[in-house]
Predict the 3D structure of the following.
Amino acid sequence: MKELSGKITDTRVGVSTVKSEIDGMRAKRDGFMNENATLKLQLKEQNNRLLHAAQEKIRLEKLAAESEVKHINLKQLREKLANLKEEVRNICQFLCNQNILN
């Protein structure tokens, strides 16, 4: 009977030990799951920032291209204005010369 009682006690101790190990494993699992969820959230935030940065880059490249086109147009208009001023000066000089000769 004593022997049986000792085996039952040993079995209970073994079950208690295994139960404690399982509870410890659950706590570790929960910790890993929380860490995993945190990392997934950080990854999602990083991806959102990356997407926003890519969109901003595209917007800025578009603005730069538009600015370049405007700069080219402005340069062409300045050249045209300079040519027109030269043409007006030449016409004025021609007319002045015509009035003097006549």
